[in-house]
């Protein structure tokens, strides 16, 4: 019985000793960390870097898609039957190139009818102007008194009497009808006829869809023999001369985005990033229920010729930059609050905490505006 008790006592002593050793190891780690944070000898190898001058940059990133800067929705100006289609989705076209036509028989007849109506209206205007000229001449004649004749000329007196009687009859005849100005009415008719001709000519031209810009056909809404309605989009054309990237940035990043900021656009089929510029930031965001995002447009500084509409792109926009400033790796600064932070200054043997003031907090480096000098060593990561 005493032997068993002795064994148990021995086992308890061994477990107690192990507990003390474990507690001691744990205490050593804690003490080492505390000792290290308080400026004592380092407990593990640290990597120190020199405080240096250089640039500090801050970028925001997201993904986007390549889209055309200009999209034209083209339609016929008349309702008709499609006669020909000269392009399909994916076709690259030049400005002025014919893309599709509809039957123009009716439109041609409308032009002929409008031109005949214009000719008739012009004739009526000419007649009204002639009548007005005759009325004016008669009024002038009636307003001029008859000239005298030499005394004793009996035959002349008789002639004057006949002329005076005829003039009296002519001047009592009305000049214009009471219904209004015939010239004004005729001129208005001519104006309407000219407008009708212009509309008919435009409709005739609208039986043909012509590419207004160079670009790529995105879609064609029908085929030969189909009846298409006036004004309904038949061909969608994307202007590929001004391709751009459409991206959505989270609300936290969008606040620092402004028109004119520079950025880079990386495409999957291009090795090097392409330079770009922010050209538009949507003033109103859209929410998916958990996150508000703002649309941003970026233009290429030099767009590649082989860009594909809808291809994905990685977008980075520079929102902060400070040049020739004191900087340390961002991982070296801890406990940042406002413009204050803490670094571990290393003198080769010991590391000690030091409060510093910080400026721009970049992607790789943080600007230090006070508390450090060039050449001092700080722990890179702790």
From TrEMBL:
Residues 77-233 form the Multidrug resistance protein MdtA-like barrel-sandwich hybrid domain. The chain crosses the membrane at residues 12-34. Keywords: Membrane, Transmembrane, Transmembrane helix, Transport. Gene3D superfamilies: 2.40.30.170, 2.40.420.20, 2.40.50.100. The keyword RNA-binding does not apply. Residues 325-379 form the Multidrug resistance protein MdtA-like C-terminal permuted SH3 domain. The keyword Transmembrane helix applies. SUPFAM superfamilies: HlyD-like secretion proteins. It is found in: Cell envelope. GO terms for cellular component: efflux pump complex. It comes from the Bacteria. Belongs to the membrane fusion protein (MFP) (TC 8.A.1) family. This is HlyD family secretion protein. The lineage of its organism: Bacteria, Bacillati, Actinomycetota, Actinomycetes, Micromonosporales.
